[in-house]
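Weekend entry, working from home. Most of the wet-lab plans are on hold until the incubator is repaired, so I used the time to fold the two sequences that have been sitting in the queue since the last round of cloning. Logging both here for the record. First:
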Amino acid sequence: MKKTVLILVMLFVTLSQAQELKPIPQISVSGEGKIKVIPDQALITATVETKGTNVKDVKKQNDIQIEAVLKLIKKMNLNPVDYKTQRVALNPQYDYEKKKHNYNATQTLEIQLKDLSKYDELMEGLVDNGINRIDNVMFQSSKLEQYQSEARKLAMKNAKLKAEDYLFGMGQKIGKAISITDNSQNYHPQPVYARMKTMAMSDESAPRVTLAAGEIEIIANVNVSFILE
């Protein structure tokens, strides 16, 4: 009798484990959300580079030009937290033909311009006051986190729509999401296309317009697994 009870208990446990190991019907899909926005800020990286044979003169000239650039930035009332020195370098360069050393001094500034209406004035002023290398101009949005949230919501909607499309006519419905993986890449703002501004050039005193900010894309990518009902 005890042996029979033991066998029944073992059988019950085995059946219970088999039920627990039964795979859950599910579907896994990817989703993408994309937001296009017009940028309202620019991150500008600009450098003063000076060269010469006398190291002190090269450094002094570089400092004079940087000082003039910083005065321009302050005159334009940019917030002090929106610009900084990114990199300073002073390097010897040996001229094998003339058998002597030359020197190369560089100072790089990073400027966060939060008012694009000042873009042309700033860029022209930078060059006039000593900047001789614009390394990069990257357009951005001040509402990045808001747009990233919207893109994520669109990505989830897109994933659910895909899953429903795959189940069309199969008599099954999408249930709860059991796993969500965010595959979004780090955001690197880049112009998608350029909207060139034009203006009458008959008035030579009119300010030039050189900015073509275009649009930037904010993209979210997810993988979602849904239970099937």
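Second, folded right after the first finished:
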Amino acid sequence: MHRALVLAARARAETYPNPLVGAVVVDQTEILGEGYHHRAGEPHAEVLALQQAGAKARGKALYVTLEPCNHTGRTPPCTEAILASGVAEVHVAVLDPNPEVAGHGVARLRQAGLHVVVGEAGAQAFALNRPYFCWSLYRRPLVVLKSAMSLDGKVATATGQSKYLTHANALAYAHEQRRRSDAILVGVGTVLQDDPALTYRGRRRGLDPVRIILDSHGRTPPNARMLHSQSPAPTLIFTGTEAPATWEREMLSAGAEVVRLPLQAARLPLDAVLRELGSRRRQRLLVEGGPTVHAAFVRQGLADEWLGLMAPLLLGASGLSAVGDLNVSTLAEGPRLVIRRLLTLGEDVLLEADFAASEAIRLPPHLMEAAPALPDRG
């Protein structure tokens, strides 16, 4: 199963809107065939692994990181390919929450007499596809907050200077996160201050994420760089119902789409923003907005992951904090995070963490039957 997980990860950022899936056909300790899903519309991992194994698959075991599908989409049902191969047993890391699959794949295989085991390395398989699981279960994207800051948590000096706090390796990491996201979000304050393009400019092949601006009162300028870049990715602006109609026409003329939502306490309701993005099947939202936007997601309990890039620099009390006011008066009130990874990127430090209160970071019990987890090999 570890090998299947490694294979699945090879297609990271390539399979949207499909999940990452790897599969291996084995005879005890010998690998007979292996494969992974490369991109939507192409053969699934199980089919590729079984094709490579050929006739040797009969009577053997198939390991796959996600429940095989039992419906016809862009490709035929994987369950039929599995049954036709003659394998005797199937090991599935985690069940698929997609209503079109949702246990039907495992049920079909068991009805045909195959021995099916579910749950081996389920936590690892869930972590590999968190955005897909979040969207499938809650119909909203996984919300990832990213910030570049000094060691004392400041994103800019007192005068607003912020470029560039971190160095080349951290910048490459940041662009890889854009490549892995299908939507990227900032507040209008960032647009006015930095005029970002929000495009992917990494070395690996990748697409620009959908660019999203939170603009409660219609302040995005018509000459914003985001609206005039050569990117094929659309720009989506969320604004309030009272934003000027003339401004909206300017945005539409510049190629942006405007979505109006009723304001709550003069602010955009972030839960409604996420529902709208979920309806468009956005699965991973990278929030690169400033302190105010980050604080809003944290306060409303809508942040799932934190990515902190820290430069070996101190800016002191006059600097601008990475997260705005959370109205925290006691330590117990502060949102807790669980550190997932800490490493150096050249001169800088990367900290990846999960918000402990997030529902999207936990594997729901109904997606995994009782089975021992494999040791974490990193």
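Plan for Monday: verify the second prediction. The first helix runs from residue 2 to 9.
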